[in-house]
Amino acid sequence: MKKILLSSTLCAVMAFGADVLPVEKRTFAQSKFIPDISLIMDMSYVDRSKKDHELEHLEVPGVAHGLLGSHSHDDHDHATYNASNGFNLNYAELVLSSSVDPFFTMDGVFHFSENGVEIEELYFTTTALGYGTRVKGGKFNSNFGYLNEQHHHYWDFTDMPLVYESFLGMHGINEKGAQFQWTAPTSTYLMLGAEVLQGENEQMFGNGEIDLTAIGGTEIEAADAPSLFIAYAKASFDIGDTTILGGLSYAQGKSRIDHMKDANAHAFSADSKIYGADLVIKHYFDSYSSLKWQSEWLMRDMDGKMYNAAKPNGVNLTKEQAGLYSQLIYAYDQNWKVGARYDTIYQNDVKTAGTNQNMPTNMDKYSAMIEYSTSEFARFRLQYDRNNALYNDNDVRQKIDTLTFQVNISIGAHGAHSF
Amino acid sequence: MNKFLLLLLPLSLFAHLNIAVSYPYIGALTKVIGGDHINSVVLAKGNWDPHFVVPRPSLISKVRSADALIMNGAQLEIGWLPPLIDRASNPKAKVGASTFLNLSHHVDLLHKPALVDRSGGDVHPDGNPHFHLNPENIKTLAKTIEKFLISIDIEHRSVYEKNYLEFEKMWSLKIEEWKEKMADKKGKKVIQFHDNLAYFNDAYGLVNIGTIEPLPGIPPSSRHTIDLIELIKKEKPCCILHDVYHSTKTAKFISSKSGIEIVLMPHDIEALENIGDLSSLFDYLTSAIK
Question: What are A124's strand-pairing partners?
Fold first, then answer.
């Protein structure tokens, strides 16, 4: 009797277990709350006129080094996008986003590379404040300028404009902090924004202390953090089927640039400012075809002290540098796009103890691209660059030709991009 | 001095409700029901592909200042409205607000795909979103908008009810007229570029047998075009019902090979120059097929 009872219970349990309920009827199932998830891969095949190791010590004199290829300092390996000849796996970008509650949304953007994982962005955004105001907190791409906020996969070229990458590095202004934005209640679009950021950009900003004992000095004191402050205004209007969007941006912060572990150990501490102006004009021929002209101008002003073995107690160093890029993109239809870009750094006044170092100017770069998208989710791009901005250790200008074939593929639910 | 003081008063004391809507047909319906008490602010242009609207910054200002937002839904706006809502950060124009209306939740959708996978093209997981092209649905949507306006502006309830009744009466007569006009078209086979007339075809018994795009959102391919020409020769559909925003290049090629007629079918108000309101849209659509 007992046996029968036991076996019939078992059967009932098995029958019940086998009958899987549809999702909406599972009492405690939470699968409907899964955030939007997307995964984007970016790969490239590169054919460059220089060997990889020749690139490592090239620099934009007085501005930046290590723009192309990969190099290491501070025990980290830094690879830029499309770093090596041949195949490059630039990244896998995982994006998660969802509303949190009636008051916030949250977005996370994770960059997986062969060197590890980086939290590219992780932030919450308010949705309920009203009056056209919005607050963002976390780590995010600053809304400085036009291109800075956009992710790499949304760019029209496979690399960053020369002036951006030289001044700010390949991630641009990507920082921990808080953002406040206000859209005016006017019929013409006007947005004002301000950001308080930690200020840890490797190429331009920093606030940590630097130990100078290796060159016979003492130390550069740490600056108070957060140390980077940004403000901008953007306005836009339409004339028929043409949209015009313009912006003015300003960033002010501290610089602490530590190259004490380099062969030629040196460090730079300064008060730094960047001024930016951007203009985008886009005309639509129909739903699928458009012509977009996008330009940005950046100028930076750094005023501080340089420390090296010859000057362990520092010498005054000022940098006034400016450059711009201007690009024209023609979308023929949903599949084909072509584009050209001009890049230049035309001002490069570097003064040591008041003496102009006569650094090279008119460093320029020319790019052209053609791309084919099979759908919104898969894009294949061929890009050619002539880069005249890099110099070798003997201060000889290099001319570098690069042909890049880029593949950018995405799956899952990825939010639409803003203008 | 008094005049100056008047200027300082908040504008909202005098103004109507500003209702932002995604497409012109929603704007027209909202205006019909709302009458003098509302302004409808249309975001997308009627002659453009409703799937691909550019999220221009000027539209952010329109959403930012809206007292309510009405959208089509069923993922038709997925590619352009979310970034506008996000940038505008207007609590009245966000998903879930009592002043936010998703029309697709109030009609029955056709062609909900059994398999949602992008290998099938740009599928709409909830079903075909072009539901406003069945005039019966317009009536349902008008009722939905009436209820919505009452819920956010109870004060003018009687006006909205009256406007709805007037519209419903006029529209019912028009429905009879269009039914008569289309009676002899029942069972006719048609080809489209994209299945955006699914609900129109459903209303009048037209049978869609193929599309010029091989899959939703995927541009025409030569292989598919050749197959389509074969299909047209075999099945003898009456015509290609073509939208106004895609190029008619492929359709003209198909027509030259098979002799099939191309009929331009507006999908919304302002899609063609002389289509200024909802009645003229359906007047045109029901007269287009000869």
Answer: A106, A137
B65 domain-assigned: yes
A371 Cβ contact list (under 8 Å, min separation 6): A336, A337, A338, A379, A380, A381, A382
Rg (CA), chain B: 21
Give A129's contacts in chain B (Cβ within 8 Å). 89, 91
Within 116-135 of A, beta carbons closer than 8 Å to B belong to 125-130, 132-134
CATH topology of domain A35-412: Porin (2.40.160)
DSSP state of A389: -
* Short-list A267, A255, A249, CA closest to A203: A255
How high is the ipTM of this complex?
A: 0.90
Q: Up-side HSE of residue A223: CA atoms within 13 Å toward CB?
A: 19
Handedness of CA A305, A308, A310, A311 (dihedral sign): positive
Region for residue A57 given its phi and psi (left: phi exceeds 0; alpha: psi -120 to 50; beta: otherwise): alpha
Q: End-to-end alpha-carbon separation of chain B, Å?
A: 66
Residue of A209, A198, A190 whose CA lies nearest to A173: A198
The reply to whether residue A132 touches residue B64, judged by beta carbons under 8 angstroms, is: yes
* B149 and B247 co-located in one domain: no
Please tell me whether residues B268 and B206 are part of one structural domain: yes
Distance CA B243, CA B262 (A): 10
Residue A371 burial class via C-beta count within 10 angstroms: exposed 0-12, middle 13-18, buried 19 and up: buried
Residues 26-85 of A with CB under 8 A from B: none
Instruction: Please tell me what DSSP assigns to residue A33.
Output: G
| pLDDT tens profile B180-219 | 999 999 999 999 999 999 999 999 999 999 999 999 988 9
On whether residue B146 sits in a domain, the answer given is yes
Note whether B138 and B220 are same-domain residues.
Answer: no
Look at chain B and report how many structural domains it folds into.
Answer: 2
Please indicate, yes or no, whether residues B195 and B260 belong to a single structural domain of this protein. Answer: yes
Q: What pLDDT was estimated at residue B290?
A: 85
Q: Band of the pLDDT at B8, cuts 50, 70, 90?
A: very low
- Collapsing DSSP to helix, strand or coil, B172 comes out as helix
Domain boundaries, position B217: 184-288
What sign has the CA pseudo-torsion B212, B218, B221, B224?
negative
